[in-house]
Amino acid sequence: MSFEIVGFESELDTDSALPPDCESDDHIVPISFEAFFPSSFMRLYTDAETFAEFMQDSPWQVTTLAEFEMIPEPDLDVYVDDRTEFRSWTEMLRAAGPDFIKRVQNH
Question: In terms of Cα–Cα distance, which of 38, 42, 32 is closest to 4?
Answer without folding.
Answer: 32
